[in-house]
Amino acid sequence: MKALFSAALVSLAAVAAPVGACGEKPEPVPEVTSEPQSARDQILERAREALQRGVADEAIARVTPLVRERPDDYEARVILAGAEVLAGRAEDGLRDANLALSVNARKPDAWITKSAALSALGELDQAIEAAERAVEKEPKHQGALTNLAVLYGMAKKTAKQKATLEALVALDDDDLASRMALVRLAIAEADMPTAERLCKEIVARNPRYAEAQVVLAAAAYDREDYGDALERARIALTVRGDDEKSHLLLEASFYVTVSAELTCAHGARPWKDEDVAQVLTRVRDRFGLSGVSTFYELDETFGPQENVQKRIARAAKKLCPDAP
């Protein structure tokens, strides 16, 4: 629930300065003056900061007196509702979101908060309806679109989730999280060309995006490009050193590469220890590897696998096509 509501926090953080509706000219930025911040604005700022930090009780304590004093203060009521949802008080959050909507139903923030409250209460269809209303109010609101994409995913509405994620990417070319969500959808549909294309777009913008590098490493292993698989798995492990899939891809690719080079240079097994050591060093140096299990440990894991042995044979044939 907190993961879903995190996008709403983006909206709440910006509620004091909403952008114009889609296609409208934004309001001019007010001139900076030396006028001190009002007591109300100070309360809202500190409550909003507490909410962004995830400290719901502090946000509630700060904004509740203001809401009592000003029941029709839209911003204060939305922040209170959001903090209540984050604190696990979804029914209170829903009540205050509805009260905020009774003050102003034209802005997306209260609709986002209402959606989060309804989701926490298990009312997924109503949560989606509220999230859709938020997007209707401001079609380019990233927080609203993000919440809606999550809810569509929960409801298994894949086509709508995909369209919403694509809208997020169109809004922000550097929205790598939405691109990665599209990758997961493509993989679920066995559309690997699309998954690879999106992952390449991601790593072009951030080479250390580990999840995308793992997908690309797996794709490289599948097409028997072991050098590419090694490099991408290595990069992923520099970011997420305990990632099991990255370790498996790196070690399997390393094992096939070493075995293929040994086969080319020294024929079929058994191989001399000094020959194994020489090829191991060469491959490690070529790819900048460290911490890879010894060849004999990998041999116990991968050696008995028939598909791996077939990979080795094909890789050796590519390395030395004229060998008998």
Sum this structure up briefly.
The protein is mostly helical. Helices cover 73% and strands 0% of the residues. The model is unreliable at 1-34 (pLDDT under 50).
Account of the 3D structure:
The chain has 324 residues and is an all-alpha fold. Among the domains are: 1-13 and 42-155, Tetratricopeptide repeat domain (Serine Threonine Protein Phosphatase 5, Tetratricopeptide repeat, Alpha Horseshoe); 227-319, no CATH class. It has 17 helices and no strands. Residues 1-34 have low confidence and may be disordered.
Present the secondary structure layout:
Elements: H1 2-13, H2 39-52, H3 56-69, H4 74-86, H5 90-103, H6 108-120, H7 124-137, H8 142-154, H9 158-171, H10 176-188, H11 192-205, H12 210-222, H13 226-239, H14 244-266, H15 273-287, H16 295-302, H17 306-319
